[in-house]
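Input sequence (264 aa), recorded before submission:
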Amino acid sequence: MIFPPLTWVLLLVAAALCAIGFYKFVYFMSVGYGLAVGGVGVSIFIIALIRGNLTPAMAVLCLLLLIYGIRLGGFLLVREIKSAAYRKTLKEQIDKPIPFPVKVVMWLLMAILYVVQTSPVWYREATAPDGPLTTAWIGAVIMAVGIILEALADKQKSAAKLKNPNRPVMDGLYKICRCPNYFGEVTFWTGVFVSGWGILSGLQWLIAGIGYVMIVMIMISGAQRLEKRQNKNYGSLPEYQAYVEKTPILVPFIPIYHLVKPEK
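Predicted structure, token format:
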């Protein structure tokens, strides 16, 4: 079953919560993203509770979706409020008015994407609540690790920028990876994907796979944009040049150092 009954409920919840993007376009992909994922987690929890499918593993998976969404959405909102530099970066990314039809299309696409990303948890509740629990618990552990990595990386970067906003962050988790927050994001969604193993079947694999591949591609794109911005801001610093040549950009211990072709 590709679209189990009540999938429309998840779509409505995701659409309602990421509609905050109509206030500020970037919120479709930031604050609204966190709210929508958290809201989908709560929705699956309530549906499972009503239908008698709320196993401990399902409850934990839903709780982790909620924690992830609240942490990410809250962090991004607070950072924007407190950081003038971050507000400037957001303004540079969108430097012209966005037509309303484009906003509507983005709103619908993002709502669908967020439901697709969380689909392994939804498929477990809707089609195989009594399915194998081993992968559910393994996925939950990976999700928790991802949340911790992302939260710690964000905290370390915020503290470093508060101390010296004109210096690249190269300490803490940033010693093993230049984008540990993005790596934490990928880790979290890897856990979501793993949580569905053993219960996904047929085209459900396609839906879940699309969601996972999309978030990985988004993180790679984000790392590319960050590398361009950092090359522009810090490219003349010898310590930064030495750092980028020895520190993987996205995945620790994987020797991929550049996603942007170095300028000669």
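Checked by second reader. Residues 7-246 form one domain.
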